[in-house]
Amino acid sequence: MKKLVELLFGRRQSKFRWFALLPALIALLFVGHAWEDGGAGSGLLYIGIIIVCVVYVFRPMLILWLPLFLAFAAYAVAVAFSPQNGPTSEWIIFMLLGFVPAVLLWLARPKKQGP
Question: Which sequence spans correspond to the domains of the chain?
Fold first, then answer.
């Protein structure tokens, strides 16, 4: 159990951890729209993404990185497999809003600190 806690919550290093701010900015773009369309609950989800991204920049941990990466990657894949939901130009833009942050988060993934 101790190893699992260390794996998830242990301090890690991430050379490119500042890349996690782009997903935060993308989430910031959607806070107002989500709040207007879905109410406070929807808006708070995006605020949560922003908070987790910012905390990750200052304290890289797997428990913070993994949900962010999986959320953006899953969104990108879901949009990629739904090209019929709108004009092609919009489909590409929304797909990139998932793939670009997922790639940046992959580059900013936490790595175990050396001894």
Answer: 15-109
